[in-house]
Design goal:
Strand order of the largest sheet: 1-2-13-12
CATH superfamily of the largest domain: Rieske [2Fe-2S] iron-sulphur domain
Strand content: 35-45%
Helix content: 10-25%
Shape: globular
Number of domains: 2
Number of helices: 1
Largest sheet: 4 strands, antiparallel
CATH topology of the largest domain: Rieske Iron-sulfur Protein
C-alpha cells in the first residue's frame, strides 16, 4: 500500500472511531426531564426518576434539566432514600459544559473532575460547582434559584 493511502486510511479510521465513540457515549443514559418554573423555583416531578424497561419500573440515578434561558443544564442526582443534589454543569475553570458519568462530572476541555456534590476532585478547576438548595414533597423536587 502506498504511504499516502495508508495515512489517509489511518486518518479516516481514527476519525470514524472518535465519532462512533462519541455517539455511543451520548446515547447512553442521559435523560432530560420536564421542568416547570414557579417564581424563583424550578419544579421537577419525582416520577422523572423512573423509567419502564421490559415492563419493569427502574430508577434512574440522575436526570438532567435544561431550564428555559439557561445555557447549561442542571444535573439532579438521587442520593439516599429521598435525598437529592443538584449542580449546574458549568466548569468553574473555564466555563465548559461538563459531562456526566461514572458518578462524577468531568470537563472535556481541560480535565477537571467534580463529585456529584460539586466538590473539585481533580484540577485545574479550584472552585466548587454551583449547587442548588433542594426541597421536596411527596411528588416534586423544588430547586431554589436564589
Amino acid at each position: 500500500m502506498e504511504r499516502r493511502k495508508f495515512i489517509k486510511s489511518c486518518c479516516i479510521t481514527t476519525a470514524g472511531i472518535t465519532v462512533a465513540g462519541t455517539l455511543i457515549q451520548s446515547c447512553g443514559s442521559l435523560y432530560y426531564a420536564s421542568v416547570k418554573r414557579d417564581a424563583d423555583r424550578l419544579i421537577v416531578p419525582k416520577s422523572e426518576f423512573w423509567q419502564l424497561k421490559k415492563d419493569k419500573k427502574v430508577a434512574r440515578p440522575f436526570i438532567l434539566i435544561k431550564p428555559e434561558g439557561s445555557k447549561f443544564p442542571i444535573c439532579i442526582y438521587k442520593v439516599k432514600d429521598e435525598g437529592y443534589v443538584a449542580s449546574l454543569l458549568k466548569c468553574t475553570h473555564r466555563g465548559c459544559e461538563l459531562n456526566v458519568g461514572g458518578g462524577i462530572y468531568s470537563c472535556p476541555c481541560h480535565g477537571s473532575e467534580f463529585s456529584i456534590h460539586g466538590d473539585v476532585l481533580e484540577g485545574p478547576a479550584e472552585d466548587k460547582l454551583k449547587t442548588f438548595k433542594i426541597e421536596t414533597d411527596n411528588e416534586n423536587i423544588y430547586l431554589s434559584q436564589s
